[in-house]
Amino acid sequence: MNTVLSMVYDGEVFRPETPLDLAPYTRYEVTLRPIIEDVAEANTETLAVAKGWVGELYILTDPSRIKEYLENNPAFVEFLKQAHSQLKTCFPTATYLLRLAFPHLDTSQQQLVLAVLTEQNRAEVAPLFDGFKNAWWLQAHPATPNGNPIALILEAQLAPFGSLYDLLEELAGTYEGPEEWSVEPDRYLYGTTKREVKP
Hints:
This protein is α/β, with parallel strands linked by helices. Strand 5, helix 6 and strand 6 form a beta-alpha-beta unit. Helix 5 runs antiparallel to helix 6. About 10% of the residues have low confidence.
């Protein structure tokens, strides 16, 4: 049985928007995909909480933490204002979302991520996105003495592929991680203490 559900994440658990007729304590595989057309409506309360310009220009996944991050990285404030007007020129129908992430699975280092959410086909908008990133974003991005650079990502529809191999080729890549990643996976996935490696 395959079922498509709409759910809202409240910060701790996913809550289905419609009742489910499922047996309790049964395991299911879930695929998550943001509902782009409903993002603004679903975050009305979030935007109301986020007073000030940042909440007016961007959807914030965690307003209080993002505002605290920007207070600690004041160079990003004016840059994000400029970025919004530049993005509007290139992607007028897109939604712009700010969220915090942990690069390289390091929970001591936060990074602000600006996601451009568009319903356009990735193959159509990727060249425009790359052009924007190289022509304006990388040139205008301020120095980052207190944190990581703001990550700019594109979240668009996947282009239709002729075969599974075409899809895999498009999605394949290399993840940059610490040298001990393969030896210490539990440390980076679950935060366990580092094992002592005997020579």
